[in-house]
Amino acid sequence: MHRQRLLTAFVASPVLFAVIWWGGPPVFWPVVVLSTGIACLEFGRLAFPDAPAARWAGVAAGLAPLTAAVVRPDPAVLAPALAAVLVLSALGFVATYARWQGRAFHAWAVFTLLATYLGFCAAHTCFLWELPGGKRWIVLLLVGVFAGDAGAYYVGRSLGRHKLAPALSKGKTVEGAFGGLSANAAAAFLLWYLLFPGEDPWMIILTMVAAGAAGQVGDLVASMAKRAAGAKDSGKLLPGHGGMLDRIDAVLFALPAFYWLLAWMQAAGAFRFAPG
Q1: Which of 41, 59, 69, 270 has the fewest Cβ atoms nearer than 10 Å?
Q2: Which of 116, 146, 168, 178 is nearest to 254 (CA)?
Q3: Which residues of 66-104 are buried (b: 16+ CB within 10 A; e: fewer)?
């Protein structure tokens, strides 16, 4: 398992970062949409194991906010996209109430969560790209979050003594969580030196650590969904990692935290935001 985890990371990571750095939006956006769609389908399988129609409708609902953001990368598009999902999904569950019986409201709530948890969060990739030097911020976020995942995993395995959330995940520890945040900070410092030498290093580090903390919450939320479904992983797409949702659960929560922190700091003049 450990060897598969490393092999998958070594193969997939260079491809992903090449797509971001040299492919640009024409290549990167299809990758983002496809990855989010797969994660939506995996979440749908966890939430609706006996309702394939609801799973595929969930994929469409989850992709609605993201697609709107790809077409128009402005946070203002999220409200109408999510409103449309809310109203149309409510009509759908009302119309099929007989099929759901007493589970209809719960199923609808989970369905709308799919759109907000996955689609809403993933849409912030588009907004982040639109910032000056957008691809550098995306690289910083992904490297920082993935480093945090690795730091939490290895520190937790070697030094972990105190369980972080034993009811959700037996493997996560308090020591691992701090190891992850330390790895967030280390990755941020390295990428500040390589990509952001004109910015304040402390602002880069603090922003990345805050996003990393949000990412750890996202990891726990995914664990909660899997625990509710009685599943260990969301899928088997990525050997050693599980499914797509297992790989991007932390990224999804980190994205909006990272973007809005940057937007606030841009407004406050904390960053120069040099293009490139």
Answers
A1: 270
A2: 146
A3: bbbbbeebebebbeebbeebbeebeebbeeeeeebeeee
Distances (CA, A) of 222 to 19, 95, 117: 26, 29, 10
Contacts 24+ apart (CB under 8 A), 41-46: 42/234, 42/235, 42/243, 42/244, 42/245, 43/114, 43/117, 43/118, 43/225, 43/234, 43/245, 44/114, 45/234, 45/235, 46/225, 46/226, 46/228, 46/229, 46/231, 46/234
Give the tens place of pLDDT for each residue, 44-102.
999 998 899 999 999 999 999 999 999 999 999 999 999 999 999 999 999 998 888 88
Q: Distance of CA 260 to CAs 90, 124, 131, 132, Å?
A: 30, 9, 11, 14
Reduced DSSP (H G I as helix, E B as strand, rest coil) percent helix, strand, coil of the chain, to 5: 80, 5, 15
Average pLDDT over residues 243-255: 94
Q: Looking at this protein, which amino acid is placed at residue 85?
A: V
